[in-house]
Amino acid sequence: TPTPSSTTPTPTVSSTTTPPVKPTATPTVTPTIVPTVTPTSPPVRVTPVVTSTAASTQVVYGTTATTTFTVTAQGKPWAASPAQACISENAAAFRCTAVATSATGTVIVSRSVTGPYQVRLVVVATPTSNEVTSATYAYSARAAATLTASGNLSFTAVISGAAGQMAQLQQADGQSWRILMTYPVAPTWRVSGLRPGVGYRLVVLDTASVAGATSNTVQF
Question: Which end of the chain is less enclosed by CB atoms within 10 A, N or C?
Answer without folding.
Answer: N
